[in-house]
Design goal:
The protein contains 9 helices and 13 strands. The chain is α/β, with parallel strands linked by helices. The radius of gyration is 18 Å and the shape is globular.
């Protein structure tokens, strides 16, 4: 049993700003730092820190950014043996502006992530087994995500799909994942509906199941999380913390969720742990540097 993550690998370039500048406006940053990122890499690290044997598949450039992007993953024991290297494209970058209240604005430069294709899928076929859980997002080519999900279904592995970055139209086949877990804004875009509160989120989670998901989850940030299964609708309030940086919180949730499911936890128990892990990550600066270890969420 293991968590297998196929997704993006980035280096985050983070600026501390008073507010996100408007069109044509220049604002000074108070501080700057670099941090490993990318939704695939983030979720792999979050899963590994909660104790799951974790494999990451993706692509980096043949450049100095790659070593920095893989630093925490290598230190914490994520299997990186299937990482491909592009000679033509740089390692992916994310340009992140973080406001004092923890809100953020992100611009992603895909780089090598956009070149993920047949080579990586071949490696996935060699890695994934029926006992594993495959974690997918949307920062690599969508046709690769589709093919990976199809491969997982053929093998019999479970699939957790985080539909981020969201778009108004996704292939219907992607919603047949075992678990579909957008956040509030992503769910609004995918479903074409306003989700201002928990009641609306429950309806949204239910709709995700009508699209084919076995479990539909809608993450509401400070309002908590709702999920829909064949057994009904459920709601869990957010953990009460003082958030200083929300970068990577959704990835902390997804990685923790996958790790606990891989360990045999029920969907409800896995979501409770993921909720704690995501909340704790917002009390620290950065994405991967903020992810918690198993002991910090009572495991």
């Amino acid at each position: 049993m293991a968590v297998v993550v196929l997704g993006s690998i980035n280096l985050d370039l983070i600026a501390r700003i008073e507010r996100v500048p408007g069109p044509g406006e220049t604002c000074l940053a108070e501080a700057f730092q670099t941090s490993p990122g990318g939704k695939g890499a983030n979720q792999a690290l979050a899963a590994r820190r909660l104790g799951a044997p974790t494999h990451l598949l993706g692509m980096v450039g043949d450049d100095a950014f790659a070593m920095q992007a893989l630093r925490y993953l290598r230190q914490d024991g994520v299997d990186l043996s299937r990482i491909a290297i592009s000679k033509e494209r740089s390692t992916g970058l994310a340009l992140i502006g973080v406001e004092p209240n923890g809100q953020n604005a992100i611009t992603v430069v895909p780089g090598a992530n956009s070149a993920v294709g047949t080579e990586v899928l071949t490696d996935l076929a060699r890695t994934l087994t029926a006992r594993d859980i495959l974690v997918l997002q949307c920062e690599i080519p969508l046709e690769v995500v589709e093919r990976a999900m199809m491969m997982a279904r053929e093998i019999g592995a479970r699939v957790l799909w985080d539909p981020a970055p969201a778009r108004a139209r996704f292939p219907k086949s992607l919603f047949r994942a075992d678990i579909v877990a957008p956040n509030q804004g992503e769910a609004e875009m995918i479903l074409g509906m306003d989700i201002p509160d928990v009641r609306a989120a429950k309806n949204a989670a239910r709709q995700l199941r009508t699209f084919g998901a076995q479990v539909g989850i809608v993450k509401l940030g400070e309002q908590g999380v709702v999920w829909s299964t064949a057994r009904g609708l459920f709601y869990l309030p957010a953990e009460q913390v003082e958030a200083i940086d929300t970068v990577g919180a959704g990835d902390a949730f997804a990685g923790a969720l996958a790790a606990r499911l891989d360990a045999g936890a029920s969907i409800g128990d896995a979501i409770r742990t993921a909720n704690r892990a995501a909340a704790a990550s917002t009390t620290r600066v950065g994405a991967q540097a903020s992810f918690v270890w198993a002991r910090e969420v009572g495991l």
